[in-house]
Amino acid sequence: MTGSYPALVLAAGTYRGGGGRGLYALERDATGAWHVGAAYPGAPDSSFSIYSPRHRLHYIVQEDAAGRIGVHRHDGDDWQEVATVPSGGSAPCHIALDPSETLLAVANYASGSVTLIRLDPANGLPHGEGQGHANHGSGPDPARQDAPHAHWAGFSPDGRWLYQTDLGTDAVLAFAIGTDGVLGKPQIAFVAPPGSGPRHLLLHPRLAQRAYLANELANTLTLLDRSDDGTF
What we know:
Shape: globular
Largest sheet: 4 strands, antiparallel
CATH architecture of the domain at 41-195: 7 Propeller
Mean pLDDT: 94
Order of helices and strands: EEEEEEEEEEEEEEEEEE
CATH class of the domain at 41-195: Mainly Beta
Structural class: mainly beta
Oligomer: single chain
């Protein structure tokens, strides 16, 4: 089969412990062939990133004990770090932008915490070090649930709620977000069966009340309906 292919660029993050040298750009040319660019060492241990179309910025986690978020700009073959901010915990593994792209949420796996960082509406750069919440508790699996492990953080489609999955405590937490961008007190939005290990929550983009929860330890998918109070 022959034909032309649209240009496509992907970014692949790597871990230093596995021999990775940073972030790699993968580009597909008109023939469909893929080409790997030179490593960008300015984004080590880059296990997750998100792109802001509004500001044309990449927010990239550095998943290590210290934990930080790098803000990068990509232009052609060049990457440039324009800002950095602490993740507010250890081993950040997931980040998300709210619908207005003025808030950035971070899930810190090792510390079991979530951080909400304000972004400058004019340029997308971080305002301070953010607000955080560290969860407490454990689950029945001593190897994987010895402590809280925040694995995902994300916003409701209307931007009113921030959700966090905790693989270590089998819970999904919900935080109301004020009009001033302040993180509210946590509430338990859903409790999965013991040992489920909830890892990732997907909120349906069109059906506002529908959500899907992937449970890593139980290898199950839970279908959820969201209430007006933020719980499932």
